[in-house]
Structure formats: structure tokens, C-alpha cells
């Protein structure tokens, strides 16, 4: 059964469109289960009705014609109950619904299983059999459930592709097509989609026709020649180190590159009207499926060689055939997985929105987008990226929605929201030089998180009182080697000078987890629980010492440097780090630099640190909570995984209780405590943190004016009462709703989002 399932999934994955995928499913399942009927009913989101989309065994004329209401018939019962229904005598069931146009009166046995993807019922997969021939057993039911689970994602992806192309399941024109992800950065953007793809990733290659077939053939032949020469060069270099049987592996590669092998098939596909990269993708995937379905384990492993060869060829094709990406005036960048480098390719002033299939609201690209003020939606797992290229898109970063091919009414609705947001931001500019102080005179320091010099300019214009988190890994990530002491010193001096005499808190190198350096790769099974943060730099004191030396020298004459240690989980790490910092301090003084010993603090982002606050605080000058990672570790949720993104919630009762404890324990030993996670930049979150007693809040620059406006308009007593109320609640969603309601009642609803909930408000308005 496993080999049948694998073959089925591979075939469906390679289908050209949704209808072909569904036809493959019903045909292969009918054959595999040796049953008379297999059918797929899909739930049409536009009408909320099930439509018979494909069948093997019922009358074909019924496809697309037979529809059922959401809870109608046995199909509706399977969907509404979200579990399999297995009946020996279906017509005897009270929910049985007979459609004469299908010819199903001949079949009595019925087994239906729901097709569910990310908690959404997509449809129902049904098999049927004649009377007195057979009853479906538990093994067959389990097989059909397995098929359904495996195919749900493929069907969701194919369905999205069709809808974005402009057609609904019923074949009617689709407008205002919406997809839900998670909010990455607030705001609304209206612009043109530009799809970008990672290099040498066959799966990311879009389908398109060639502009010049012969040119594409020449391009591919050139790539084959280059790869063949690469392999021959490597084989020659390693000849003396390999046995004959190992050397023969290179001959296998070279034979695959022969004219009558893979290259010949790719050239034929190009001449059939597919561009070189797409033709290569199709042939490689076909070869891979062929090898993976073989029973011989040695031959199965050759699929790996084919994939490797495909990536090598694609890499050369992308180098030779690289075309300049044209970015329109209002670019919405779309990718499987956005990277900071992709953002940097868009000309200044033209990037208005971001859409990413992978990632969550706390992935680093989302954090960067918030700092840049670019509306972003992440975690759109069903979106076919290439279908959004060139489409007009609306990105709603408040609700985590995107709309493709919007109607004039929807576009006008969102344009009004954009205008309202611009007006709000202009109105907040007057607060820049005013203190962040409640109406009952409680003062809170508002700081910013930075990593680039562009962040500094924006931060100063928004009235930041210092830097609560300078991500020193940014200068490391934009290099192809470790930056020298002098290079680091220049980066750090820029930040320190820009904010002097206000404090600049520099976090020592924090790599690992979701932050990697190309020249210092860290390969781990579970990187978030692995070698990262202070663990890396203490194991490599040569990196840590150079960095601290550069920081201290950069602070000469300014003396506004603070050093912060990331990923601390025990006291010994602090003591070892302090020993190295003091050592560097004395060495720099001996070299003649007139520097002061900076304040040293620790980041509280590991649950173990929450229970050692007093011990840690006794050894350092300050504490700062990294609420993003702390939330991730407390809830056991990878913040970059869209499958569990909905479980990551900064308002979770456990997170709030931990934050209260940290502030209380730090103040017991008389040490200041701040927070530099994304919760601080949320107006409601900032109020709760102030009520808990946090001395400073550090956030992206774009959030600072709204947070200052809210804090300056309420009393700390009011905020403390709100905190007391929400700490009695046990649901993060209820807590968030309670905080939002309090803000709306206090007159700050416009800070949560300008206007009503977008899609709901528009739907209500359109209906009326």
C-alpha cells in the first residue's frame, strides 16, 4: 500500500491543474481498492456547496452538475462530522440523498472520508460498491483516510492556483479572491505582485512558455556542457583518492548527460513549448519518480543523483539566462520564503508590500518588514507563488489577508484605509520630542531595535530615547567572512554616535536557530534547542573577544555602550562572559584607549532564566526580556513554522505570568528590567508591560509613535487594573480581545487597525 500511495502522491503532484489531479485520484484509488466507484466532491467556498468534481464509476455527465448543500446527503454528513462514514446499506440511511443523473442507485456500500487541510474541509472522497458484493473493512477505511490526508495539501494548492487564475470551481469568473495567512507587519498595501525564487531550487521553477525556443535550447546545451566539464574536472582531481568502483559514479553522471539521455528529453520538451528551466524541472521530476518507485534500494538511491544533477544544471541555466527583474513603482514582493537579500534588490521607494508562503509574524523578515514599515502577510501555505506574478494584489497586514484581482469597490475600500493610516502617522509626528509619561506621571523609556544604519535614521525621526537592542549579527550576515575588528568598530561607532549620549545596548553575536552565516554553517537536527547565542561565542572566544574589543574601542569618548548577552540559561555562562569582557576592558585600557567599563546585562529568553532572575540580576547591571524567543520556548512553538503559527501567542497566560514574575524578581534585587521583543511594540502589549513594572520598552521604530501616544493618554492605575483583569483569564484570544476592547473604549481603536475588520466590513457593506 505504501508504494501505491507514494506513486499516487507523485502523480498528483505533477498534474497540470486541479481537474487532472482529481481525475488521477479517482482512477488510481478505484484501481488500488478494487472497487466499482470512486468520486471526489469539493466544497465550493463561494456557494458553500459540494460539487461532484471527478468520478470513476458514476455517469461522467454528472461531473460539475451534481451539487449538495453543506450538510446535505451522506457527503454533507461526512464533511460536517469531519470523520469517515462506512455503511453497508447507504440507501437505508436517513441522510441518503439520491441523484438519478449519477446512476448511483446500483451501489449500496458507501465509504466516505473528509479531505481536510489546516482545519478546513476541502471536500469528501467517496468509494462505493454494489449490493451483496462487499463491505469495506477497517484496513480499506484506513487506506482511504491516509490517501485523503496525503492529498489534502495538493488539492488545496491546485484549488488556489485555479482561483488565482480567475476561475472558481464552477468555472465562473473569480474576483476579490482572498487567502488567509498570519499578519507579518501592520498596514495595507496595493500594488503589483513580483514573484521571486530562490536559486537552483527545481520545485520553485514556474511554468511558462519560451520567448525564443532555439535560444532556450542553446542555453540548455551550454549548461549541459558546463556541468559535464565540472564533473570531469572533479573526477580527474579525485582520481588518485578513489577506488575504481567509486570513480565509476562519475561515469554514471556523465552517461546521464549524454545526448540520448536526460538532455535529449529536456530539449524535446523545450521544442514542445516549455522554457528551459521548466523543461528541466519536468524531466528531472519524471526521472526521480521513476527511480523512487523501483524496488531495488540501490536504484532508488539514484533519485538523489538525478536531483543533484538537476540542481547543477539549473544553477548554470539561472546564471546564463538571468534576466533583470523589473520592479514596478508599487511592488508587492512574493516568494516561497522571503530573505533580507530579496528585499534589498527592490529599488528604494518601490517596495510597498510583502507576501511569503513560509514564515510567521516573528520570523526575522517579518521583524525587518515592521522596522521598514512595509505591510506583510506570512504563512500563506497554499499559495502558488508564480500565479501571483504580475497580478494586482492587496496586502492586508492587519488581518493577515491578501486579495488577488480586486474589484473596483474592494480597491476603493482599501485605498481609504491606506489614506486614513497615512493621516494618522502624520498626526503622531508632533509627539516626537515629548516624554513617554502617563497622565499620573509614570515615566517609561521608549527604545528601538536596530540592525542597519537606515533603522537609526528612522528611529531618531520617531523620537527614540536610545537603542534597546542592536543586532550585531547584521554586519556579520552581510559579509562573506567574519568582519575584522576594524570593520566591526566602524559599524558600532555609527550606532553609538547617532544616539549619544543616550544608551546603545549591543547584543553580542547571536547566530544559530533561524539566523545563519553562510561562511559558518551550523547543521543541527533541532537548531532552536542547539548551538546558538552565547553557547557559540563562548565555544569560540576568538570571535567573542574580537567583538567586545571592537565595541569598547568604538565607545571611546561617548561611553554610552551597554553589552547584552543572548541565550543565557545558567549563571556560569554569565560569569565566564564577564571574565572575558573584563579581560578585554583591561587590555583596551592598556593600549591607551580612554573607555569606561560598560554596563553588562543578560537577555531573558530561555525558560530556565525565568527561574534564576535574582541570581542572574546579582551578577549584572540590567536584564532585558527577549519576548519573541521566550514565547517560542514557553509554548514549544517554532515561530517560523506556518503550520503552528496560530499557536504562537504573546498574550498566552503562561507568557504573561512569566513576564510578571521576571519584572517582580528583578526589582526585588534593585535591577532595571526592559523588554525588546515584538510585544513591546504592540500598543496593548506595551500597556500591560508598563503595568507589570518594565522600565524600558524597545521596539521597531514604526511602532514607537503609536505606543507613546497611548501611554501618554492613560494613567498607570488604569493600565494596572487592565492587567489585573486579564491575568484572571485563561485564553490568549480572550485576553487579546479584552485588551483591544479596552483600547477601543479609551479611544484608540484606530491604532489596532484603521477602520473595521477588513473583509468582514467590506462583505457587510456590499451585502447592504
From TrEMBL:
Residues 17-165 form the GAF domain. Gene3D superfamilies: 3.30.450.40, Phosphoenolpyruvate-binding domains, Phosphohistidine domain, PtsI, HPr-binding domain. It holds the Pfam family GAF. InterPro entries: GAF, GAF-like_dom_sf, PEP-util_enz_mobile_dom, PEP-utilizing_PTS_enzyme, PEP_util_C, PEP_util_CS, Phosphohistidine_dom_sf, PTS_EI-like. Its cofactor is Mg(2+). The keyword Transferase applies. Keywords: Cytoplasm, Kinase, Magnesium, Metal-binding, Phosphotransferase system, Sugar transport, Transferase, Transport. It is found in: Cytoplasm. Its main location: cytoplasm. It catalyses: L-histidyl-[protein] + phosphoenolpyruvate = N(pros)-phospho-L-histidyl-[protein] + pyruvate. One of its GO terms (molecular function) is phosphoenolpyruvate-protein phosphotransferase activity. Its EC number is 2.7.3.9. Signal peptide: none annotated. It is an enzyme of class 2 (transferase). The keyword Transport applies. Belongs to the PEP-utilizing enzyme family. This is phosphoenolpyruvate--protein phosphotransferase.
